Amino acid sequence: MKRKISFENVSVGYMSETVIKDLSLDIAEGDIVGIFGPNGAGKTTLLCAVNGLARVLSGNVYIEGRKVNKLNGNVLRKNIGYVPQHFEIDSKLPVISEEVILMGSYGRLGLLRYPNNREKLLLDEFVGMLDMSNIIKKPFGQLSGGEKKRVLIARALMQAPSVMLFDEIFAWLDRDMVKSFTDVIIKLHKSNNLTTLIVSHDMHIIRKICPRVIWMEKGKIIMDAGRDEFLKKIRESDGII
Amino acid sequence: MELFEFAFFQKAFLACLLAGTACGIVGVWIVIMKISFIGVAISHAAFAGALFALVFDKPVIFFSFLFCLAACAILGPLSDKGHLHPETSIGIIFSSTLGMAFLFMGLLPEGKSQALNLLWGSVLTVGAKDIGLLAVTSVAVILAVVLFFKEIQSVIFNRELAKASGIAASIFFYFLLVLTGAAVSSTLQSVGGLLVFALIINPAAAAYQITYSMKKMYFLSVFFAVFSGWTGLFAAAAFNLPAGASIVIVSSAVFALAVIFSPKRTAKKVF
Lengths: 241, 271
What we know:
The complex is a heterodimer.
Chain A: E1 3-14, E2 17-28, E3 32-36, H1 43-50, E4 55-63, E5 66-67, H2 73-77, E6 80-83, H3 97-103, H4 106-109, H5 117-129, H6 145-157, E7 163-167, H7 175-191, E8 195-199, H8 203-209, E9 212-217, E10 220-226, H9 227-238
Parallel strand pairs in A: 3-8, 3-9, 6-7, 7-8
Antiparallel strand pairs in A: 1-2, 1-4, 4-5, 9-10
Helix pairs in contact in A: 3-6
Chain B: H1 7-32, H2 37-55, H3 60-81, H4 86-107, H5 113-120, H6 128-147, H7 149-157, H8 159-164, H9 169-187, H10 196-210, H11 214-239, H12 243-260
Helix pairs in contact in B: 1-6, 1-9, 1-10, 1-11, 2-3, 2-4, 2-5, 2-9, 3-4, 3-9, 6-9, 7-9, 10-11, 10-12, 11-12
């Protein structure tokens, strides 16, 4: 299987703190990988290292064999959809949800080119898939947390990415919403031929979606295994499942 | 209407139109990005640059613009790489430029009236050169919005998400700061270093209260800024008031009315 994402002895940090330490990792094209671990383990930082938004202190990150650096970061990011964990915004902000979704296509389109029929078709497709027809004309700041996450997922998909990064998108969602999001992610992954990384500290979600799980603690990978081995390790460690 | 028979009033009228257009557009960026204090910081940088030019007998407009550009060039990286919140870096620029302004004012060989003119502005005495500069700035700001509407919209909505989708968000952020500096320094002569801040913030903040469309916000903000300029100008002529102060008071009144009649007052709060 072709390697899509590679980390070679990567350390990542913010200011004087090193969050990820000497991490090496390969993710194949078409994989769907769960990044599991407690708060502060470096899960979000790992995602930010993939799309070049984090400060890599040493080592190299490769996307499809191309080293991520400051010069090519914007080009590579056009191909990487990112749904953030936190998204605070003023409820009065003058932007409607449809515009937020279309913004996802702006980087891919480039300067002086505007959304056309292709973008309209993609928009309609994602609005249908994520059941958003009743919210796309509403101001984005007026949406509920779950609705905002739907819009941000559609926004990331508008990039027509080959890699998707989901950062704790299940946090603060009710059970029905989690079920709906889980189904959508599996469907999106298959229909768009994506390589998907999902950060979550909820082992039930990880176990349902991800055949491969990377368990992180204190900036290091303590386990990189299949779903069954992950569950076995969980049972052995604290008997929660 | 006989006021229009005077050349100085025609120029002042035109200056209000051009300054209102530039400040109205720039204000949208500042208000949405919530970096209102940037107007104060940049206007003080322009003021310090102009005083520097007066002390050393150099071209005032050129040096006020140069100081503005320097302030903008420092503001962006300070907030990006210095691990400081933009408001903190703006505060540092503000206090530094204010200190410089007072230093240069102290070094002025003659009276302080020239310096005070720059601080308060004098729309009724704008010259052809000032009008030309205002026209160039207004056209540059309008072109920026027309050509890069989608990139600017994405960056002022959220810089991190814009960057994550492959937009050169930092470059566009600095570009917006530089255009803000250009708008401030070109209005220094007409509106003044202190009052330009109100002409940038008040009309855009009023427009923000009214619409959920960014395109409409641009038009409303420009409309409110030009309306404030013209109404303030007529009020100044009719009641013999200082023009700059009248313009600011009208723009504040427009903001107050926008808040009172805002359709967003009833909008639900989302937590």
